[in-house]
Amino acid sequence: MANVASEGAAVRRTGAGRAEHVLATLMAAPPSADRLRRVLEQALVLAGASFAAVYAPGDDPAVLCLAESVGLPGSLYGLRDGYPADGGAPVAEAHRTGRPRWLGPSEVADRAEGRRTPEPGFSLAALPLAGPGGGSLLAVAERPEGFDAGERAALELIARAVAVPEPGPADAHEPAPDAFSLAMDTGRVEVGDEILRLFGIGRDDFDGKVETLLGLTVPEDLPALMSVVEPDHMSLDERELEFRVRQPSGALRWLRLRGRLVPGGEGRPAQLVGTVADATKLRSDVTDVARVQRLAADLATAGTVKDVGHAVVDALRKPLRADRIALAELENDRLVVTVLDPPEPEAWPELWRAEWRGEWPDAPVRAMPALAAALRDGRAHIWPAGSALEPGLAGVGPGGLAVLPLPAGGRMAGACLIGWDRPHEFAPDERALLTACAALAGQALRRAHAFDAEHELVGMLQRALLPHRLPRLPGAEAVARYLPATEGLEVGGDWYDVIPLADNHVAFVIGDVQGHNAGAATLMGQMRTALRAYAAEGHPPDVVVAHANRLLLDMESDLFATCVYVDIDMEQGTALCARAGHPQPVLRHPDGSTETVRAEGGPPLGVLTRAEYPMTPLKLKPGTVLALTTDGLVESSGTDLDTGMDRLARDLAAADPAHLGQTADALLAGAHRGDDVALLLVRYDGMAVRPRRESWSVWRVPEAVRHARRFVRRTLRAWELPRDTADTALLVVSELVTNALVHTEGQVRLDLSLVGHRLRIAVTDSSPRGPLKPTNVGWEATGGRGILLVEAVSHAWGTVPVSGGKQVWAELVTDEA
Fold it and tell me: Which residue range or ranges hold the PAC domain (predicted)?
C-alpha cells in the first residue's frame, strides 16, 4: 500500500496528464484478454484506491454483475457480486443517472455496504461507463477525505477508457506457459507447458481433466484447493493459495495458484482462469510480510471476538510450530478466555482445568503474577525452556512461552499466550512477527468486542420483543420461524404475531421495519405492541393498520415498516386481509394447488398521512395453509420479488401440510440470508364444535331489563341448559344490562354464546369507562353491589374495549364434570 500511496502522490503533483498518457498507452496496445484488468489497475496507482471494480449488465440486464476487480477483496467493504439495476446501490444509481456518486464515510455508514462492515471508515466512488451497455466503475479509498480533485479526474478518465470485453471461446488462444483456464461445467482444463512441468506431466500424457492434476496434490492440501475450484465456493474476487504436489520421484513441490472466476454468458460456461508458479523458493519463513498482511485481511473481516481468536491461531500456530495458543479478553482485572487451541481441557495445566467454567476457563490471573506483570508492562514477554515460572504458566509452555499483551487505544484489550512443549529457540524474526501480530489483534479484539456487545443488546431486544410461543388456536395450527441475517448485526426489524380475538377470531400479523440495528428492533417492538392493542379493541383489519400508520407518523421516525394483517373467523372459515407495502400472502388449498393472493394494499406504514388500506376477503376450506413471509425469503440481489414468490408457492405446494414445522424448515432451506427472514404458517382445520350464538339489541324503554331476561330465558330453554344455570344467567344479565342502561348512553347489545359447557354472557355499550368493583359496601350504600354479585356467581368475568366502547362479560360453567 505504501507504493500505491507514493504513486498516488505523484499523480497529484503532475495532474491528469500522466493519467491520460498511461491510459492512451494501454489502449494503443493490441487487444488482449487482460486489458480491462490492466486499465482498472490504474485506479490503484493513479487515484490511490484500495479496491476498484467494474459492474456491467449481464445476461439479465436488470442486474449489474461484477465483471472485473483489482486490489483488496471487495468483501472487506461489504460489496456484493451483483446489484439490481433499479436499486439504490451507488453503482446502480450511477448506471441509471449517468452521473458519478462520491460518498464519504458518514454516507457509506448509512448504506448497506457500511452496515455489512464492522468499521465503515472508507470513502466510495461510483462513475458511469461510457460504453453502449452502460455499467459503473466503483472505487474505494481507505481515507476519510475520499478522493481529491486530481484523483477524481483520473477516475473519470479511467471510466471513459473502460470497455467491458466480450469473452471469447475457451479455445480462442493458447494459454501462456504459466496460465490455465478451467471450464466450471465440465472440469476440462487448458494449461500451459510450464504448469505441466511443475506437476511432472508430459503434454502427451495429460488428458485435459482437472481431476488428473488434483490427484497429484498432497491430500492434506486438497480441501483448501477445492475451495478455489468448486463453483459453490467461488466469488469474482481474486483468490490465492499455496499447495503441494508430489513429483514422480516422490519429492514434494510447493506451488502458488492465483485465480479468479470469469462469469459465463449465453452459450459460454463460467471459467476459472489464473496462473500457477513454483513457490518452493518463494516460500518464506515467519518473517514473510505476507503473513502479517494476510492476518490483517482476516482480522478486517472478523466480526466477533471468537473470529479474531481463530484468525490469530491460524496465523501463528503453524508457522511458529506452537503446541498451544490461548486468546483472552481483559474485562476489568479478569481475563476471559475466548479461544483455546487445542480446545481439550487435558491439553492444559491442572490450574487451568480447575478454572474451567462451561466452554472455556477463566484465565487464573491471580495465580500467575508473571502474566499480570506482562499485562502491566504492555510489551511481549518471552521465556525460554527452564524459566522459573508459576505452574499455571510453566505448564502452558514447558519448552518456551510467549505472552503477548494486546494493546488497543491506550489500554489493554487482552492477551495471547503461545506455548511449546519441546525447547524452542526464539529468533529475532519471530519476536518481530509476534509484536506485529499483537498490535493487529488488539485493535481487532476491541472492535469485535464492541460489535459483540451491540449484537448481544440487539439480539436481546429481538428475543424479548418476538413471541416466546404461539397460542393454542381453536380450529387451526400455527408455526413461526425467524432467521437473522448472516451479515452485519444479524438482527433487524422483522416480526410476527398471533392475536386471539373475541368470538373465535384470530389475527395473524407479519411485518418488517426498515433497517438492521437497535433502532429497527426497538421500533419493531413498538409496532407489534400497537397492532396487538388496536386488534384487542375490536377494530377491523383496515382500521387496525390505519391506526398503526398514524402512530408511526406521529413518532417522527426516519424508518418505515411494512406488514400484512389477516383476521380469520375460525367458525366460518372466512378471513379479511389488509396489506401495507408487504409481500402478498400465499394460500395452499386442500387439493395441493397454490395461489398468491392478489390482495389490495396501501403504502408502507409511516409514509403517507391519509393512507387507506382496503380489505380483501378470503375463503378458507379445512386443510388450507396460509403462508405469510417477509421479503428476506423471496427477494435478494439476484432474485426479484415475483420470481421469489413463485418459488415459495412451488415449495409450499410440494410440502406436507400435516407437518407444519417440517414445512416451515423446508421453505427456509433455500433462504438467501442476506436479510432477516420471518415466516408464519397457518393451517385452517375448522372447529370441530361450533359455538351456539344469539344476540339481542336492548332498547332504552322502561321494561328493557325484563325484555332482556325473557330473551335469555327462551334462548337457554332452547339450548336445554339446566334450571340452576339459567337462574344464575338471569341474575347476571339483570345486573349487567342495568349497569349499561344506567351508567351509559347509546346502543346496548346483549350476546349469548355456548361452547361445550361454557356459557358466555356479554353486554356491549358505547362508553369506554369500565365498571369499578367497590372495595367496601356499607349498609347505607345505594349501589356497587351488582359487580360484586356478578363476580360471586360467575366462573370468570372481565371487560374489553370494543370500537370506542366496551364489552363486559361473564362466563358460567354449566357442567363441572
Answer: 239-291
